[in-house]
Specification:
The complex is a heterodimer. In chain A, 14% of the residues lie in helices and 18% in strands. In chain A, the strands form two sheets. A two-stranded antiparallel sheet of chain A has the order 1-2. A two-stranded antiparallel sheet of chain A has the order 3-4. Chain A is an alpha+beta fold. Chain B is mainly α. In chain B, strands 1-3-2 form a three-stranded antiparallel beta sheet. Classes of the chains: A alpha+beta, B mainly alpha. The interface between A and B is small, with 10 and 5 residues.
């Protein structure tokens, strides 16, 4: 069974991990309650999407 | 006819996907609105709409075709007697999918899939909305005539309201002042007592 010949250096590990980045979600302001929520998604605070009740809050 | 699905089935196998979609369709027609993952909602939509099309046709053959998917006879009865006729004037697009964000626990994107105009509630809402719109249009149509009359009246009303509010505030202020005076007297007595004790 093939195995790595060398231990991955600290430098290589850190270079690899420096590419782990969190993406910023696109937020929009709710038209009804003025809270920020994810775009194209029902507002979790007031439970509406496009002036229509979707969730029971 | 919707495009056949490419890629892997839901749940690991074609039979499992058929079973899951059948259960989802049954739940949707039973409750009118279900919460599920986005992927399942997207797969369910073409199946549910095809079943509703069968329900609109309404004959025995269509009923047998639907019974091969939805095994619950009472749900099929509701589908053919209530849901199907409700969409007689609607050429497709019987369901609505609304995304509701990721689920806690596994971060799966969730969605609500519902029948458009579920039963009577939405009809009432639409009717009230229509009357509101009509009222707005009327108000917009005749603002010029009413504008001058309205312009004088609100100011007088506002001034009256202000006067009332001010009087209320003053009375409250009087109360608080008397209370403060009482408290001050008590404090003075207490100080005097303390002074006596010390002496």
């Amino acid at each position: 069974m093939p195995v790595p010949k060398r231990k991955t250096s600290r430098s290589n590990t850190r270079h690899r991990r420096s590419q782990w980045k969190a993406a910023v979600p696109t937020l929009v302001v709710c038209a009804r309650c003025k809270e920020k929520h994810i775009a194209h998604t029902a507002c979790p605070t007031c439970g509406t999407y496009a002036k229509r009740r979707v969730l029971d809050v | 006819m919707p495009t056949p699905t490419k890629g892997p089935r839901l749940g690991g196998g074609p039979a499992h996907e058929r079973l899951m979609l059948a259960n989802l369709a049954t739940a949707l027609f039973e409750h009118g609105r279900i919460t599920t993952t986005e992927a399942k909602a997207k797969r369910l939509r073409p199946l549910a709409e095809r079943l509703i099309t069968f329900a609109k046709r309404g004959d025995l053959h269509a009923r047998r075709r639907v019974m091969t998917v939805v095994k619950d006879k009472s749900v099929v009865h509701v589908l053919f007697t209530e849901i199907g006729p409700q969409y007689a004037g609607r050429p497709g697009g019987y369901t609505r999918i609304t995304k509701i964000g990721p689920r806690k626990g596994d971060n799966a994107p969730m969605a609500v899939i519902e029948l458009v105009e579920p039963m009577a509630e939405q009809v009432v809402a639409e009717a009230t909305g229509a009357t509101k719109r009509a009222a707005k249009e009327k108000a917009a149509a005749a603002p010029a005539a009413a504008a001058e009359v309205v312009a004088d009246s609100p100011e007088s009303v506002e001034t009256e309201v202000d006067a009332v509010e001010e009087s209320v505030v003053e009375s409250e202020a009087d109360d608080s002042a008397t209370e403060a005076a009482v408290v001050a007297e008590d404090a003075a007595d207490a100080d005097a007592d303390e002074a006596k004790d010390e002496s």
